[in-house]
Amino acid sequence: MMSIGPEDMADLKTAKWLLENPGIAAKITELLGAPIQKGFELLPKSWSATIGAVTRMVLFMSVNAAVFTMDTRPRTESSNLWHKLAVAATGGIGGFFGLPALIIELPISTTIMLRSIADIARSEGEHIHDSESKMACIEVFALGGLSKGDDAAGTGYFAVRAALAKSLTKAAEYIAEKEIAEEGAPALIRLIFQVADRFSIQVSEKAAAQALPAIGAVGGALINTLFIDHFQNMAHGHFVVRRLEKKYGISVVKKAYAGI
């Protein structure tokens, strides 16, 4: 087996720290200084079904998003701050108008986050016009969060990737053949449902925090900043791992990751 060089190993250690860090709920709880469980009690009973439908719609929109038309010239750094400011602004509006505004705000903030994810992917050498890279960007929304059917063995980074692998491959093949991704395509339906299953739980945690009394515009902006920061971290870790896999091979990187 090829050994991983010292600089790349340092990058892999940073990637693992980012990918295995606590999820949205823990970070929001730390920010608010109180558990967000009360917020869940304030959500409408129909919320779970509503947010599931909305997240699937948002992810389908993301597959065709114009963010992938960004300049493809290689860059060594991504513009994280500008994307944070934009998402914070949408969170401020959502926080001011309350929970109903989330249905309007979520597609906007998710599109901005996807652009940030694609920007990070580009900084790690991904060709963001390639169908595989596009699907890897969508995959980020499934990272760092649980799904309803998870057990302890299914929550790690490589476990999530393994669960999505077949769907990602088929969806990438479909996107490579078509100019426009149709919502009725079986390959995309399966992938979007799997990613949305995890993403919707993280969105619900964000919504629960915003449902708490007196959150307001400032609180909404801070929560949204945490939200995009979380997915930027997932993207940085994910695309570092992908870069190293291309250099050393998947099995070598996976073994080194497990040994950290």
Summary of the model, kept short:
By secondary structure, the protein is an all-alpha fold. Helices cover 71% and strands 0% of the residues. α2 runs parallel beside α9 and α8 packs across α9.
Topology:
Elements: H1 6-19, H2 24-32, H3 37-42, H4 47-63, H5 80-97, H6 102-123, H7 131-139, H8 157-177, H9 186-211, H10 216-248, H11 250-259
Question: In words, what does this structure look like?
Answer:
It is a single chain. With 260 residues, the protein is mainly α. It has one domain (6-259). It has helices at 6-19, 24-32, 37-42, 47-63, 80-97, 102-123, 131-139, 157-177, 186-211, 216-248, 250-259.
Which characteristics define this entry?
260 residues, mainly alpha
Determine the mean pLDDT. 78
How far the N terminus sits from the C terminus, by CA atoms, comes to 17 Å
Q: Biggest β-sheet, characterized? A: none
* Number of strand elements: 0
| H/E element sequence | HHHHHHHHHHH
What shape does the CA trace take?
globular
Q: What structural class do helix, strand and pairing data support?
A: mainly alpha
Percent of residues in helices: over 70%
Strand content: under 5%
Q: What is the number of helical segments per DSSP (H or I, 4+ residues)?
A: 11
User: Spans of 5+ residues with little confidence (pLDDT < 50)?
Assistant: none
Number of domains: 1
Over all CA atoms, what is the radius of gyration?
A: 18 Å
